[in-house]
Amino acid sequence: MKSTIFKAIIGMVYALALVSAATTFVSCDNGTDPGGWEDDPGVSGWEYEEELVRSATPTATITTVAKTSLTHAYVDFTLTNETEITGTWEVYTHVWYNTLASDVTAAITTWPTLRLTHTSDIPAGYYYVSVTEDGKYESERLALFVSVQAETVTGVTAANITEKLAALGANDAAHPHTLTLDSGTVITNSSTWGTINTAVHNAQRYVVLDLIACTAANNTISGTFAPFSPASGYAMNTIITNYVTGITLPSTLTSIGDNAFYFCDGLTSVTIGDSVTSIGKYAFSCTSLTSITIPASVTSIGGSAFYYCDGLTSVTIGGSVTSIGDYAFQYCTSLTSVTIPASVTRIGDYAFQYCTSLTSITVDTGNANYASVDGVLFNNAKTELIQYPASKTGTAYTIPSTVTSIGQSVFNGCASLTSVTIPASVTSIGYSAFQYCTSLTSVTFDAGSISSTNFANNAFGSSSGYSGNYIGDLRMKYLASGGGAGTYTRESGGTTWTKQE
């Protein structure tokens, strides 16, 4: 009896588990010990109905549509399913919760057009649409966004910005509203910026801030745009800047200060006026910034000015820039090429480090301090190798015989490089020169000598550093008895180098 009860309990638990997988069961046909399931050989007593099928999930490539006006009662989306879907459509306010959108319905007009309709004016925002086909259960939900056409609002001040934003419909980053700040707005005042940024964040509206009119004396016509000092914060707080997609600076501004746009991750564009002469340290660290034009008026680019702008694909450096600071473009991982104008007299350490998509660096032939050969950066005399682009075409490289010094981090991150030939003229190799060269398996030193003093300890990475940075003991093998000139190889992924006889 106990055994029968136990088996019955186990059977019911199993049945409940299968029910959760959308299978419907009927009771045991003889009301006795189930013993097993009908599909299982040797099993008797229980049988189940066919498993239910989920309705086809609606799909769309373009999931954001802007209303043509604020009184538009419907919007149309184009579905991309290969087979026409028929059934009952539902519109929810959340991807999971079962709260239906108020007064909004969905229906196919003519396949594949799906129309969201409101009784009067469809509110902007997210809608989650599902369909239930005959004989099936509800599909997964497709997220759709109704945006409004971008509007331009003038006369914006810190005092009225909340009211101005309240009159604007919800939008997305592709349809930002433009807020033109009034000429009396003090853009260099941190309190003013705090008010403006908080209002934008609370309204959750994507905006471009047009500051062209802010040219009054109290806006520092010859001053620096740095609303917050490094000690007290940054110009745009990282919580809210996803809503600020663009900024147009006044043409009278002469300087962009340190940290001015640090971690403004929503910023996709910045227009710099042609009176700006300097860009401060960490001025931009904007992951969504895709391109930047540095006007001819600018003479200096500060250290780490574009640090971690990993969406930056192109940069135009004006013809008056004389100094590019240390780490200026570090971690600009989408940057593919850069041109150094004739005016540049200094390129700081690690200026293009970890630019993993960089294929070439071109130097204007009129530059008296720097030169480029086949996309590789040198000093003008070509005695110092400064930067080898991380994604340069080709897997082997022979360093020119004019080179005496391989600078710091020159080949750092060149993951495709498999072999390097170092000429006899080279007398020094800098710090982390070959770090993260994960595919490098062959290095040839021509006749010559590099002393331990001039051969940086971390030239080939550090065994105690981050994973992948260390590519082996080549420095030690080269400096040991029996080392020196010759070809050294290692197994792929290995850390032990062997001198070939």
Rg over CA atoms, rounded to whole Å, is 32 Å
**Which outline best applies?**
flat
DSSP E strands, number: 34
Q: Which sequence of strands runs across the widest sheet?
A: 13-15-17-19-21-23
| Mean pLDDT rating | 84
How many helices? The count is 4
Unreliable residue stretches: 1-49, 217-240
Helix content: under 10%
Main sheet record: 6 strands, parallel
Structural class: mainly beta
Task: Measure the end-to-end span.
Answer: 83 Å
Strand content: 25-35%
What does this structure look like?
With 501 residues, the chain is mostly beta strands. Among the domains are: 2-46, no CATH class; 64-148, Immunoglobulin-like, CATH 2.60.40; 394-501. Helices cover 9% and strands 26% of the residues. It contains 4 helices and 34 strands.
List the keywords.
6-stranded parallel sheet; single chain; Immunoglobulin-like; disordered N terminus; 34 strands
